[in-house]
Amino acid sequence: MIKRPTIADVAQAAGVSPQTVSRAINNKGxxxxxxxxxxxxxxxxxxxxxxxxxxxxxxxxxTTIGIVIPDITNPFFSEIVRGVEDLAHxxxxxVFLCNTDEVPERELSSIDSLLEKQVDGVxxxxxxxxxxxxxxxxxxxxxxxxxxxxxEEIPEKVRVISFDDRLGMCMAVTHLVQxxxxxxxxxxxPERSRSGQKRLSGYYSCLKDNGISIDPGLVNFCEPSFEGxxxxxQKLLDAHPEVTAxxxxxxxxAIGAIREILTRNLSIPADLxxxxxxxxxxxxxxHPPLTTLRMPKREVGIIAMKILIDLVEGNHPxxxxxxxxxxxxxxxxxx
Amino acid sequence: MIKRPTIADVAQAAGVSPQTVSRAINNKGxxxxxxxxxxxxxxxxxxxxxxxxxxxxxxxxxTTIGIVIPDITNPFFSEIVRGVEDLAHxxxxxVFLCNTDEVPERELSSIDSLLEKQVDGVxxxxxxxxxxxxxxxxxxxxxxxxxxxxxEEIPEKVRVISFDDRLGMCMAVTHLVQxxxxxxxxxxxPERSRSGQKRLSGYYSCLKDNGISIDPGLVNFCEPSFEGxxxxxQKLLDAHPEVTAxxxxxxxxAIGAIREILTRNLSIPADLxxxxxxxxxxxxxxHPPLTTLRMPKREVGIIAMKILIDLVEGNHPxxxxxxxxxxxxxxxxxx
DNA sequence: CTGTTAGCGCCTTCAT
DNA sequence: ATGAAGGCGCTAACAG
Lengths: 335, 335
Prior knowledge:
Radius of gyration of chain A: 26 Å
Oligomer: homodimer
Largest sheet of chain A: 6 strands, parallel
């Protein structure tokens, strides 16, 4: 490979000092328009590109951020990442992407690599780190935004963005109760999932608020997948044929539930209503189209990045520890 | 923020020279085991982290690569990216993610930012740049891998990975012909899509090989979306009721086609067979489950990254300009 | 408006 | 086995 030209090469070719070239390429005012023109032209001819690496070393700023998520193939996270990258690109930041598969070791090593790369900030989604470990890593970053993960003490340079899972669940329950449902099952996802726990608590409290007696047998934990929804509903319906509506931990579980219901030659929503969570693209395309709670995923990504940029660039972030509200999208799977 | 400790700080605390610390953290042999131990312990206490920025400036290597794709929310690309990041992480590389939305200006500015960040290499997916522009940018990277995009002259430091779209289409056509279909429609996707063109040419040549007369009216271009499939098939079926099978540009188009067919109270596959392309996760979950051509997306990502690492690290890459073959996944939408 | 000096944190090279 | 000098490409700070 041919060595890329440096600022010094341009300077020599233009017969000026390196500093003058620096001023030209950085649009600093203190330079005559014509020398600047001339230098830029020479730089172009030489194919000069400023080295962000060298610049970063001096400024101790990399215009780079990291985003850490469980899995980019999960549409929930890819939407968030898209929002993040859109705003990053608009502000000339670059984004390091790290997948963790919810494996704490991989999350830790990814975080360490971002630290060594000296990112200006990091966005952590659904972190599975323990409280102490998380707090300790957070300290090492200049700034951080947490999405979908609470911590006990929020350091000054950290912001937290979350979804109001309890409210979302309550909107779903209310929707069903208003339509006359009294036996509402809940396929609750993995038992240790934090958002699952919040949704479960919303389920219980909202049923209570509506004066509906609680039957713990109507709640089943399950894998957060199509198969998880299908198999778990199978067992649940066998044991509880009185059920007329099924709430689901996420859309994939809901789509599995739909399949199980149709397999039994029951009809949706006439015999059984189904509600999902997340509003992934698939939700609108299955048959019947799925009523679900839309989480504003891309918006969350955009806001997270906006906050991070404000933090990095020393502006006063307008947004603090935002809580996003889900929106009930009523489609064909509920009556 | 507290200034992070440098190699010099550790050196001072340990009463040795910076160089010795460097040797310790880099596992160079020329250092006694005990001083190394001692230095590492002190480094740990101080919370020292090597600066990859400074290191990159010296070595002119960043252990960073870039991947440029149209849209991370498209499951086709998120799978590829996942494969790339998995292998990158395994080899301690970090990955810059850039979305282009197929807008050449955004692709160009993303590429420029990667160049300034001095990535060790880049992976370009489905690039929409013109031949000349692409060739010119490619020259600036140390190494590059192209996925799903041909170029006329392949520079020495560039590798090309593609999918055999023609073969895939031929597998689909043959599958249908063997089952007795003679009137096979093709919802061909956007007219300017390169993979669409390859599939179309496969469609024509394979029909010909099977001695089936070609009716250009059975080919309709369409948006590569659910709605595109639905609306285009609507028009096509109105004009050509003799059709008994529908090939689709991708799975989304196929799922739209399925919806249109079911809306007409026709049954699948009894009245009409449908085949998609890509095998996105949704394909297996719709009803009926979609017969489709699986592209080994994650594997492609892994291989692309493997080749890139080999290139960067000066190994002789075992793989050259690989062509991946699709696999026909037969499910319920064909008889 | 332009140039000079120094240093960002680390590694390469050569000495000791 | 350890240390000293120099430089990677750039910009901040100061001088002129």
